[in-house]
Amino acid sequence: MTAKILRGRLLSFVSRPADRADTASYFYEEDGALLIAEGRIASCGTFQDIRGEAADDIEVIDHRPHLIMPGFIDPHIHFPQMQVVSSYAASLLEWLNTYTFVEEQRFAGREHAERFAGLFFDELLRHGTTTASAFCSVHPASADAFFETACQRKLMMIGGKVMMDRNAPGKLTDTPESSYEDTKKLISRWHGRGRSLVAITPRFAITSTPEQLEMAQTLAGEFPDLHIQTHLSENDAEIELTMKLYPEAKDYTDIYAHYGLLGRKTLLGHAIHLSDREMGAIAEAGSIAVHCPTSNLFLGSGLFDLKRIDAHNVRVAVATDIGGGTSYSMLRTLDEAYKIQQLQKNRLSPIESFWWATRGNAEALGLEKRIGTLAAGTDADLIVLDSGSTPTMAIRKETVGSLEEELFLLQTMGDDRSIREVYVAGRASHPDRR
Ligand code: GUN
Ligand code: ZN
């Protein structure tokens, strides 16, 4: 790929903002530019400086007046749930049994999985998400389709076949042994191929026997650098059933701790209803509580208490959780996250929100040296954001007078229409403009 310059207003974070006035937490350049070469950001600075250091005949793509930011990162999403979104249920377990466990059975077929892999990455990119950590179905074929398509598109994607050997339909269960063997084969086929990363993925304690969690533990021991993704304490009835299935455990978190599944690369989806003891254990392990705001509201699961989680120094991430979640958009997700904090008298600043969806999630995944910022040397996964992308937004934008106000408008009213372009490893990749 030939080198090029992208010109626009640059925004990238260097640390988590302490508060809304923390201007040292980010880098903002009004007339900025990125020099892109070999799929990476070769340098980042003012347009004048970058233009000066590049060849005279280099292509310049001018994205002014729009914002150029690192692509969004979605650290908890379900690949086989594109047709589960918007399914009417009273709460989590009814939703899982009535719709989700029915739909996921269709991913046994390679053809079906391949079709949806294409649609899935189109939707992610349309919404400005360039990296995700995804649950595939129990079938290894679903993970093969996921990674094959991700590789073709040069995407950095984390994924895993779910391990689930009970409390689900027969066509959606594996065994402790087969889940171990299948995950191991996926690791050897896909982990580190292109930009793919395989995650060990026990769905949650309800759908895994103790024997299967032991197998997950064995995998984690054999492959300590892999991510582990699961669900934790999302819903009251789920917690009650979980504790019946694991009566020896101190609490829900203790189950995963017992099987050695809590580490710095463990992503705990939802993590809403936690005791102080559990928060302490998660913080000590360095595991990540992944907040899924649209899902938590849609399924009526509960309100994520960010202030309390922060007070316990638990690492946090924010994600869509499609198909429990209701939007692929990290902008819509940040809006709902803001409202959930509003209800708890906790004020989330837009500066912090945009850190969260980019560098924050990259740090949670341990990938901040590769993605999530505009730093030189990192992968050129980028988005171009238009804060006046709809008539409603354009009208409101007339009175916007600061970067903070602009970000707040984007998160409050923006969606896929706000994503003007998306670059994957330096290549323009918006599905509607290919
Ligand atoms: N817990 C176990 N599986 C799931 C799932 O697919 N979605 C959600 N939201 N919670 C879960
Ligand atoms: Zn989930």
UniProtKB/TrEMBL annotation:
PANTHER family: GUANINE DEAMINASE. Keywords: Hydrolase, Metal-binding, Zinc. The keyword Metal-binding applies. This is Guanine deaminase. Binds 1 zinc ion per subunit. Belongs to the metallo-dependent hydrolases superfamily. ATZ/TRZ family. Its cofactor is Zn(2+). Pathway: Purine metabolism; guanine degradation; xanthine from guanine: step 1/1. Signal peptide: none annotated. It catalyses: guanine + H2O + H(+) = xanthine + NH4(+). It comes from the Bacteria. It holds the Pfam family Amidohydro_1. The lineage of its organism: Bacteria, Pseudomonadati, Pseudomonadota, Alphaproteobacteria, Hyphomicrobiales. Gene3D superfamilies: Metal-dependent hydrolases, Urease, subunit C, domain 1. Residues 68-427 form the Amidohydrolase-related domain. GO terms for biological process: guanine catabolic process. Its EC number is 3.5.4.3. It comes from Pseudohoeflea suaedae. Catalyzes the hydrolytic deamination of guanine, producing xanthine and ammonia. NCBIfam families: guan_deamin, PRK09228.1. GO terms for cellular component: cytosol. It is an enzyme of class 3 (hydrolase).
